[in-house]
Amino acid sequence: MQNQLAIFDLDDTLIQGDSSVLWTQYLWDKKIISDPRFVEADKAMMEQYNTGNLDMATYLQFNLQTLNGIKVEQVDQWLDDFVDTIIIPRVYPEGLSTVASYRSQGIPIIVISATVSFIVKKIADRLGADVAMGINIKQSNGCYSTEIDGIPTFKEGKVKRLTQWLAHQPITDAYIYFYTDSANDLPMCLFADETFIVNGDPRLLQAANENHWPQYTWRL
User: Fold this and answer.
1) CA 152 to CA 192: how far, in whole Å?
2) What pTM did the predictor assign?
3) Pick from 208, 184, 214: which is nearest to 10 by CA?
4) Which of 16, 22, 76, 200 is deepest in the core (most CB within 10 A)?
5) Which residue numbers are catalytic?
6) Of 151, 164, 162, nearest in space to 190 by CA
7) Which Gene Ontology molecular-function terms are recorded (predicted)?
8) Cα–Cα distance between 49 and 53 in angstroms, integer?
């Protein structure tokens, strides 16, 4: 039997909202950051992301200043609370049941997101994923830096990172199911064997109609 993989985008696919934006808002609400420019930058980022014009490295270089000088262990504690209080209530029930359906068939679950990996991994673990891929960030003196480590999981970078990962697995010619909401994921949509659109943005819906990809609306 051919190996199979079920791959899910995270933000606005498995959860309602963007985890990176929600994280910045969490840090603001907890008064961990006090400069409103970071919240405003996230709003601008989402507009650029939605139009496909986001410069991810420039955005992260600014945004990750919020954690400047804060130890990874402290960030980890905040993340636990963030996932419990903010993210879990936003997980789509249909997302959970779809993940569970693949798991019941013994198909590995991968969450791959253009959010930084320390957020993605926390959420993916709670969702029962086997593998989580996000944008890896270099560490310096026990703290997160503002520098990307390796290929960012954004646009065609998702395909590159997945291909890298597959090259180190005992998997050959895996059959890939992929779920996403965003036209930024078109490279992965075209790479997958079966693509499913969840709450698709306008550009993705157009591509979905052209490629006859199934379309779903998931709600809380």
Assistant:
1) 19
2) 0.96
3) 184
4) 200
5) 9, 11
6) 162
7) hydrolase activity; metal ion binding
8) 6
